[in-house]
Design a protein that fits this description.
single chain; 886 residues; binds ligand ANZ; binds zinc ion; cytoplasm; ATP-binding; Methionyl/Leucyl_tRNA_Synth
């Protein structure tokens, strides 16, 4: 029974912190790893980098998984929703350089701030599982896995090129190189080759590709496609072009997906780094400088595709494997050393890049594919429409190709293979665009790579009983190299093999390593006997629903999928995939206000700095700067970002309206996977909705108290004899229960339920209580509304349910009373010549003839039937229209 302690005013600032404190004291959202009869559900949002401040993207991300978590709890699931920190990475080092504060101190104080902000959102998180990836308790286990993989040969060391800043004596990440210069020193960047560690992800390429089939329908199609393209499987042939060098027989190997065009090869092109190019350059200074120029440019594939085709003849030739003719070898800037074998058999008639190149350097073009399609028959090959001739494996047949003539792609492929394979000049191969994953970073703030370099024994993994290799914390990087290199207490060790003095590796892991397995660690975050406790992993994994930004569609998800398979092969986890379902939430956008400066640059202003006039749709139409009263331009609606000054601070918004309103607003404004355009004014709608529900509940509680009734025991009896209005409210109540269930369970539509709840609330507050049974119906509607609202506005909904004397600990998802959904009468409109003249209450789906007769008998209708009836139209369950001759 309520003893109404609540005021009639909705005050989120009062109730929210109190609720959060209560949940914490009750350990409400803590789950354990013991077996249970309840089904389990693991909901995970991509964990944040502790930058220090929550942004709206976080709010949206975490609210989505929280609403789902609360839904599954109501449905009787045991729900795990954890939170942690992706805590290594460059921003901490940059902050250290700027403010001379140790990265660890900076990171942990940021974590404290962000944890408090997350808690103020009222997320139902099991905080007992929280961890930061920068702690040795966590990264010990990725060092351990690295050592296992090293032993298995799934990790190896290879020379690779890095950006070297010769002034700061440091390796720079690509984003630290601005216009070819170091971001701090301004020095011209050089390329250097240094040894790096690689994870052999290509060994899993086929599995990573094939298992995408299992995710079909559970992940956004776009993400699956991006993963497929990134892995980039190509089936083709490796073809060998023989040549003699200094009396030695050699072959130049090319990878091609179109061996059927072999007879159209007019030259062969190799990458600038190709050994044959180097060989030719030794005696050709012009070629040497061309090769040097090629190396300077960007190595990004996208840039190469855009760059102008450039090349140079090496003067060397190789032998065509079918005709025995000599084919010239060119160096070309569009050939990648890292793909296939770094050499291409050029077929300018049927490949766009070769075509462009051949035209530029006047190399011959030879058509070797014709099309079976009748309209193409006999048409002369036209260089400008070469695309029409290219790539049509289904319809193309070989021409100008000797004995291959008339064969289609498949036939030509097989024919060439049978000719070349016995001579060792060709074999079937599969190539992947995917490269092995280079994980070495020459940075301090990361997980130390657990190896020791010994002059005698080489690369020695740190023995398991010496793990973790702990990162020293009392270090402040200054931007000049990795400070670990100067820390002899860290570097100087004895070789675990021979005992002689050796050097510890100072490179650290790419931070993608930490984020590749955190989801699994959440099952047993404090486990000290291994990477993952198998019992816990079996209970919780895979993640049932993963929620995050589409910007992680390629790398993070690919690496996590790879790690899951590595851990599976270590016997740590079951199943092949880490994330059963994926939801990629849309970005949060906001309007921008700016001025264009004389030099073409733009100054962006915060909305607070601007006076804005809105039209009645809430769109800004005019803005002036408060400081000078002069106009500013209303810019585009863009992703919230620091550079555009259009970020809305979640904390300020929570302080003003309360978390429940912010949660409702972010869920209700747009479908979860689409962009959300933030409009401050928009918060008023959900806020007023909550206020109204609050007021209604307080009044309802008073009514119950006056009659010595309780909400928990009051129930609707004899539902069949209710008034029409009461039946209609009951129908709305039960309809809403079902609709929300569908929205959550089937479509992950989290926006529409809010409108359904608002509709239910409107119908409830408009409902006139005239009897005891009416009161019971209103009570049922209200309890249902509040129960469903616990998902979106958990603080307020729980406080109000308790006010009504309902035990929130045993709350379950309401069940639909299907009998309440049955509509025993419906109201149909009657028109004469299209004008509404009356209405009638009838049984749904009544017979049309009967309806027409009934309609004509209504007094209000009959008096307008003044002439002959020419037509009678019945729209089932809606209207009857009688057309009368004038
Ligand atoms: C002859 C040919 C004829 C080709 C034709 C295409 C069309 P995907 O499908 O992406 O695997 N290629 C091979 N190695 C290369 C390298 N290192 N750098 C740049 N290009 C390279 O691409 C395979 C095709 O890309 C191969 O098939 C080869 O050109 C080229 F009508 O060989 B093709
Ligand atoms: Zn040694």
């Amino acid at each position: 029974m309520s003893n109404s302690a609540l005021t009639s005013q909705y005050q989120p600032q009062e109730i929210e912190p109190a609720q959060q404190q209560k949940w914490e004291q009750q350990n409400r959202y803590q789950v354990n790893n013991a077996a249970s009869d309840k089904p389990s559900r693991y909901l995970l949002s991509m964990f944040p980098y502790p930058s220090g401040k929550l942004h709206m993207g976080h709010v949206r991300n975490y609210t989505i998984s929280d609403v789902l978590s609360r839904y599954y709890r109501l449905k009787g699931y045991e729900v795990l929703q954890p939170m942690g920190w992706d805590a290594f990475g460059m921003p901490a080092e940059n902050a250290a350089i700027a403010n001379a504060v140790a990265p660890a101190a900076w990171t942990f104080s940021n974590i404290d701030n962000m944890r408090a902000q997350l808690k103020s959102l009222g997320l139902s998180i099991d905080w007992s599982r929280e961890f930061a990836t920068c702690t040795p308790e966590y990264y010990k286990w990725e060092q351990w896995l690295f050592v296992q993989l090293f032993k298995k040969g799934l990790v190896y060391k290879k020379l690779s090129t890095v950006n070297w800043d010769p002034v700061d004596n440091t390796v720079l990440a690509n984003e630290q190189v601005v216009d070819g210069r170091g971001w701090r020193s301004g020095a011209l960047i050089e390329k250097r080759e240094i040894p790096m560690y690689y994870f052999n992800i290509t060994a899993y390429a086929d599995e990573l590709l094939n298992d995408l089939d299992k995710l079909e329908g559970h992940w956004p199609q776009q993400v699956i496609t991006m993963q497929r393209n990134w892995i980039g499987r190509s089936e083709g042939m490796e073809i060998h072009f023989p040549y003699t060098l200094n009396g030695e027989e050699k072959t130049l190997d090319v990878f091609t997906t179109r061996p059927d065009t072999l007879m159209g090869v007019t030259y062969v092109s190799v990458a600038a780094e190709h050994p044959l190019a180097k060989h030719a350059a030794a005696t050709n200074p012009a070629l040497q400088s061309f090769i040097e120029a090629c190396k300077k440019g960007s190595v990004a594939e996208a840039d190469l595709a855009k760059a102008e085709k450039m090349g140079m003849d090496t003067g060397l030739t190789v032998t065509h494997p079918l005709t025995g003719e000599q084919v010239p070898v060119w160096v070309a800037n569009y050939v990648l050393m890292s793909y296939g074998s770094g050499a291409v058999m050029a077929v300018p008639a049927h490949d766009e890049r070769d075509f462009e190149f051949a035209n530029k350097y006047q190399l011959p073009i030879k058509q070797v594919i014709d099309l079976k399609e009748p309209h193409k028959q006999g048409q002369q090959f036209d260089a400008t429409t070469w695309q029409d001739w290219y790539g049509d494996k289904q319809n193309g047949v070989a021409i100008n190709s000797g004995e291959l003539d008339g064969l289609n792609f498949k036939q030509a492929f097989d024919n060439i293979l049978t000719q070349l394979e016995p001579k060792g000049l060709g074999k079937k191969t599969i190539n992947y665009r995917l490269r092995d994953w280079g994980v070495s970073r020459q940075r301090y703030w990361g997980c130390p790579i657990p190896v020791i370099n010994c002059a005698d024994c080489g690369t020695v993994p740190v023995p398991e009983n010496q793990l973790p290799v702990v990162l020293p914390l009392d270090v402040v990087p200054d931007g000049r190299g990795n400070p670990l290199n100067n820390l002899t207490s860290f570097t100087d060790v004895n070789c675990p093999c021979c005992g002689k003095p050796a050097k510890r590796e100072t490179d650290t892991f790419d931070t993608f390593v930490e984020s590749s397995w955190y989801y699994a660690r959440f099952a047993s975050p404090n486990y000290t006997d291994g990477m993952i406790n198998k019992v816990a992993a079996d209970k919780w994994l895979p993640v049932d629903q993963y929620v995050g930004g589409v910007e992680h569609a390629v790398l993070h998800l690919l690496y996590a999928r790879f790690f899951h398979k590595l851990m599976r092969d270590e016997g740590l986890v079951q199943g092949d995939e880490p994330f059963a379902n994926l939801l990629t939430q849309g970005m949060v956008l906001a309007g921008t206000y700016l001025r264009e400066n004389a030099d073409g640059s733009k100054s962006y202003y915060f909305p607070e700095e601007v006076d804005i006039r809105y039209n009645d749709k809430g769109q800004p139409i005019e803005a002036t700067l408060k400081a000078d009263g002069q106009p500013v331009k209303i810019g585009k609606i863009e992703k919230m970002s620091k550079s555009k000054n259009n970020g809305v601070d979640p904390q300020a918004t929570i302080d003003q309206y309360g978390a429940d309103t912010v949660r409702l607003y972010t869920m209700f404004t747009a479908p979860v996977d689409q962009t959300l355009e933030w409009i401050d004014d928009g918060l008023k709608g959900p806020y007023n909705f909550l206020k109204k529900v609050w007021r209604y509940t307080i009044e309802h509680a008073e009514t119950l108290a006056q009659q010595s009734l309780t909400a928990a025991t009051l129930s609707v009896s004899d539902a069949q004899s209710l008034s029409k209005a009461a039946k209609s409210l009951r129908r709305k109540t039960h309809d809403t229960i079902g609709k929300l269930d569908d929205a959550f369970g089937k479509n992950l539509a989290l926006n529409t339920p809010v409108s359904f709840l608002m509709e239910l609330s409107n119908e409830l507050t408009a409902f006139d209580i005239r009897s005891d049974s009416d009161l019971a119906v209103a009570n049922e509607a209200l309890v249902t509304l509040l129960t469903l609202l616990t998902m979106y506005a958990p603080h307020m909904a729980e406080v109000l349910l308790e006010e009504l004397g309902i035990d929130v600990m045993t709350l379950t998802y309401p069940t639909v009373d299907t009998s309440a959904l049955v509509q025993d009468t419906i109201t149909m409109v009657v028109q004469v010549n299209g004008k509404i003249r009356g209405q009638m209450d009838v049984a749904p789906n009544s017979d049309s003839e009967w309806l027409k007769a009934e309609a004509k008998q209504l007094d209000s209708v009959a008096k307008f039937i003044t002439g002959d009836i020419v037509k009678e139209i019945v729209v089932p369950n809606k209207l009857v229209n009688i057309v009368v001759k004038a």
